[in-house]
Design brief:
2 domains, two-stranded antiparallel ribbon, mainly alpha, two-stranded antiparallel sheet, 315 residues, 4 strands
């Protein structure tokens, strides 16, 4: 890669670092000035707890009773659950601020050439950026949890699974990009690994978004059912899931997919031995990363800060 292209990338990363830092600071200021939004930014996560025997909700089927099981005293237990128990409270505005600052730090690392170690230059010259995938594993995984909380998912186990699945998806991206680096023709064995890792990454993408869309569809259905006889006191219309949540879900689905399409473009160029500049791939990631983050923060900020008012609780 020519020196001027690398120089432009460094400057672009420094600019992106300041843009993320400034955006995160703006969110802090608006949040600090809007006291009424503070309580609404805390989203609770729950876990299911088994009912006790006093609840008469546990059903047992033992071998001595049914003759179904082959081992002595082997039992099958079906456990019912009581009301979920709160295990955590998560402030989604703090989460949005965190991913801006995580990304800002990463961009300053790139823009200063690995804090002046030359690490970023060496990686880009080889045709990849390994550090980006570790940053995404932190920031994008946090974003996925925020999307899940925003679209109605309150199950702690599910939210942890979404976080880990997103991180795993990013490490598949790392694997693919590591196999694409360099300019030599890619060996057949590496091609197989690229294809399998890409398939694994897209499988994780589908799993993540099936879970997110399912929780959102459930939220929409539940609100429609539970509040069908009530009206919004501000405008007299039926109570429904706010438009800003719809926008968050739809836009983030598109942006997450676009990250995958950028890598598909990279894969296609390398496997077909077409000439291409990795700096363009890197620039696409820089731009898309900011757009995805600012749109999520804007949606959360609009819904929880600018639209703060007295609303009926969704119970």
């Amino acid at each position: 890669m020519e020196a001027f292209e690398l120089s432009i990338l460094k400057k672009r990363n420094i600019t992106a670092g300041f843009v993320h830092l400034i955006t995160g600071t703006i969110v802090i200021i608006f949040y600090a000035l809007t006291k009424g939004a503070h309580g609404r930014a805390n989203f609770e996560a729950f876990r299911n707890t088994p009912a006790t025997s006093d609840d008469a909700s546990e059903t047992r089927m033992c071998s001595t009773q049914t003759g179904t099981f082959s081992l002595p005293s082997q039992c099958q237990t079906t456990i019912n659950f009581t009301k979920p128990v709160k295990v955590a409270s998560f402030n989604v505005v703090y989460g949005a601020i965190a991913f801006f600052f995580i990304t800002a730090l990463a961009h300053f690392f790139y823009g200063t050439d690995g804090f002046n170690s030359g690490a970023y230059s060496r990686a880009i010259e080889q045709g990849w950026n390994p550090y980006r995938w570790f940053e995404y594993a932190s920031s994008a995984s946090l974003m996925t949890v925020l999307i899940g909380l925003s679209d109605g998912n309150r199950d702690a186990t599910s939210l942890w699974a979404l976080y880990i699945m997103t991180a795993a998806m990013m490490f598949n991206g790392y694997t693919v990009e590591s196999l694409l680096r360099g300019k030599a023709k890619i060996a057949d064995s590496a091609r197989d690994s690229i294809k399998s890792s890409t398939l694994a990454g897209w499988t994780l993408f589908i799993g993540i978004w099936v879970a997110l869309i399912y929780s959102f569809a459930t939220l929409v259905s539940d609100v429609k059912t539970k509040f069908s006889a009530e009206v919004d006191p501000d405008n007299g219309s039926a109570i429904k899931v706010p438009t800003w949540i719809w926008i968050i879900v739809i836009l983030q689905l598109i942006y997450y997919a676009l990250f995958g399409f950028i890598q598909l473009k990279h894969i296609n160029s390398r496997l077909s031995n077409k000439p291409f500049e990795f700096s363009k791939i890197e620039s696409m990631y820089i731009t898309l990363s900011y757009v995805a983050k600012v749109s999520l923060a804007a949606g959360i900020g609009y819904g929880l800060i600018f639209r703060t008012r007295s609303c009926p609780a969704l119970t």
